[in-house]
Amino acid sequence: MTAANSGHLVTAALLVIGDEILSGRTKDKNIGYIAEYLTALGIDLKEVRVVGDEESEIVTALNALRARHTYVFTTGGIGPTHDDITAECVAKAFGVAIDHDPRAVKILSERLAQTGGEMNEARMRMTRIPAGADLVHNKVSAAPGFWLGNVIVMAGVPTIMQAMLDEVAPRLKTGVRMLSETVRADCREGDIGTPLGEIAKAHPEVAIGSYPFFDEKRGPNTNVVLRARDQAKLTAAKTAVEEMVKRVRAAL
Amino acid sequence: MTAANSGHLVTAALLVIGDEILSGRTKDKNIGYIAEYLTALGIDLKEVRVVGDEESEIVTALNALRARHTYVFTTGGIGPTHDDITAECVAKAFGVAIDHDPRAVKILSERLAQTGGEMNEARMRMTRIPAGADLVHNKVSAAPGFWLGNVIVMAGVPTIMQAMLDEVAPRLKTGVRMLSETVRADCREGDIGTPLGEIAKAHPEVAIGSYPFFDEKRGPNTNVVLRARDQAKLTAAKTAVEEMVKRVRAAL
After folding, report:
1. Which residues numbered 38-57 in A keep a CB inside 8 Å of some CB on B?
2. Which domain does B99 fall in, by range?
3. What's the whole-model pTM score?
């Protein structure tokens, strides 16, 4: 797909942290959710990485990604156990101190008073927040995420991550929203590939992707997806694709 | 999780290629499948990256990953349209030529003769294979993937990717298989975090992860997952975790 042009690009990367994703034990549900969510906000998700619970891997990925994008979102590794090392890694990546944060201690203590759990060393781990970070509130289970520089640290459990994303969304810079149209080609991808490439070249500000799928009725079929931030340019490209697929189908 | 030790480590990275994953339009199903598949073979998936259909992104990721791992698997970008640029990017990363491969042309021509499609410029794109690569056969839709150096290039469509993985699996070097045990703690993650950390420290060759989940009956609950390549070490750590959770539950 050729890149669409915009003067208002806001980009993001996602860093998924957790051995359980790499072993296949847990199937990630956050990548697709966050991708769709950011796209709807006009933020371009440009890159995703999944790494295990290893400090050097996490710190290296954080530093690579935060230098390149408006925002870096992370999921996972902020629970109470020894394998939850995300907060430490973020502090290390930024070169700042990390300690128990009084705001986080207060939030967690209040929740524990309600639910009857006791504060202990493990739970205190969840109050360790890098110096200078804002808290990201967690309506589901209280233990907060945080936002430091351009890095937004969220839980790995999907319901908690989603609540945290709703919490930060109103404060995110957003770009011009990407508009999208889909043309169902009713022919095979290989039948339209050549003329579709010509249309893509003639419409450089529209990102055109081609996605084969299996249609119960017709057999192999293709969706052409067009994306642009300018409605007129999008419509022009869509019309060109619609006329092209008509011609191709007539010739088959 | 602390890394488990083995003299027989075979590692892999996965590079998922496609704008449609980053926009959220298509929800990736390959990461979890490949993670589980490689784990069962004794191959450690160490890193996953998702990048868009942009040459510089793909080439950079390929070169970073292939230098670090026994194998790099890629999914996506080998179809017949202008946005399918994976084969070109692999050739570029390796600094080798790319051209229509007579073996691939033969396979595709035979399939088209059966299905009644015609060979054209777009379909010929799918026969472009970097010099020196072996083909990876595709029982589903014929157009092959390929294997060059330590990089294995597969389709993005899950059914086709899965067939290709079955095709290459018998030829992969595999490590000692990771063994795994799960202990259901029947208490909250924060209740066991401190003693679990001590067990993890005392059993450095067993990777211990802690995964909270919501139990309809009990409310917040935790699975402790232990992984090791040595059965005796795994059993010793599992026993330690079982005794610990009994003690913690008795004290609650």
Report:
1. 38-39, 44-54, 57
2. 11-171
3. 0.93
